[in-house]
Amino acid sequence: MDDFFNPFKELLRIAGVALLAGALVAAGWLFDYWMFQHLPGLPQRGLRQVLIHPGMGAGAIAQALKTEGVVADARKFYWFCLVSGSGGKLRAGEYAFQSLATPKQVLNKLMKGEVVQRRITFPEGSTLRNVAAILSGAGLAEESRILRLSSDESFVRSQGIEAKSLEGYLFPETYHFQKTQDDKALLETMLREFRLRFSSAWQERAGELGFSVHEILTLASLVEKEARVDAERPLIAAVFLNRLKRRMPLQSDPTAVYDLADFSGPVTRDHLQRASAYNTYLINGLPPGPICNPGAKSIEAVLFPADVSYVYFVSKLNGTHQFSTSLEEHNAAVRSYRQKLREQTKHEGVAGGAPLPPSEDVGKQVEPK
After folding, report:
1. How many domains does the chain divide into?
2. Helix (H) or strand (E) holding 314
3. Considering 68, 74, 100, 172, which has the largest number of Cβ atoms within 10 A of its Cβ?
């Protein structure tokens, strides 16, 4: 009888051994899996940055993390994502991981979308070229693409802007951008800030003054480029508005060089005489559009200018200006400026280099009749 059961006993013994071995293997795998979740991927210290593009699946993300040294095993991280039910919840973006971070910590960051935010500041008076260069320097976009999109009239009009470019509408402020944002998203972020800051009250005020938003931004851009101290912004705005009322050319030096892509240095008399649709020494009224992106203070200065009758101003070489109501007063201020300039250049041993104010002859041509 024992001989009859012996084969079954042997089978049970083999099955028991197999089950024990399987249990040990499973226990070992589970222990290894637990260790993988809770131990750093690599022992080295330091920051590891990974760019997760939109549309990347868990497998591709796991491989990217392995390539950058964030996790030790791409396959295990992939299974970790699947087992935890988070495979479809990982968010795109640029991430920074400490190399001692555990896979569990890495997964939590990916699920929460704790991406790197790049803090970018655009100063008041930045032009489209400046904006494109800043974005390019931060590694967020190609300069040429930003310039091309900013001047794409179909894109500009799709944003509700009746202009040939976004010049004047990209509000100068500090932004937090993500590297995965495309060119359109970057510009739209700045445009949203502009719409927020140019309130309905400001729009109503522009209408009261008889100007469109585009015209207000154009005037504000001139104020932004001319003013050096905040207290003078309403005064400079008043000068330009008074000149418009009297049909006098605005004669703002920065307009004469706006469309010179590689311009740097002082504005010379040759610049003031060059043919340009923006040169307010040669055209009457406003230029076609803003010459930079003005800040809130310059916009507000145009909307609420000083109550003065000034129609001239000239630099005092200390960041402020001398304002005048008559050509005679202005010419005296110009002579004082030139005398100070001669003394300054003689003292510093420098020949030229400062912006030239309109000459007396030019001033006489614009004196209202």
Report:
1. 3
2. strand 312-315
3. 172
Q: Who has greater pLDDT, 348 or 180?
A: 180
For residue 172, give the nearest of 218, 206, 199, 134 by alpha carbon.
Answer: 134
Same domain, 161 and 306: no
The encoded tokens of residue 108 equal: 């939590």
Both 206 and 78 in a single domain?
Answer: no
6 occurs within a structural domain: no
| Nearest Cα to Cα of residue 238 among 301, 195, 287 | 301
Is 167 in contact with 127 (CB distance < 8 Å)?
Answer: yes
Q: Assess whether 143 and 236 both reside in one domain.
A: no
Same domain? For 192 and 267 the reply is no
| Other beta carbons within 10 Å of 106 | 25
Our CA dihedral for 350, 252, 366, 285, rounded to 10 degrees, sits at 160
Structure token pair of residue 76 = 């295990």
177: its two tokens: 């951008």
261 contact partners, CB below 8 Å, separation of at least 6: 129
* The domain boundary residue, chosen from 137, 163, 197: 197
Q: Which of 97, 181, 80 is nearest to 139 (CA)?
A: 181
The model's confidence at residue 41, banded by pLDDT at 50, 70 and 90, is low
Eight-class DSSP state of 357: P
Q: Name the nearest CA neighbour of 161 among 124, 205, 206, 192.
A: 192
Write the pLDDT tens digit of every residue in 265-291: 789 999 999 999 999 999 999 999 999
- Has residue 21 been placed in a domain? no
Domain containing 241 equals 200-366
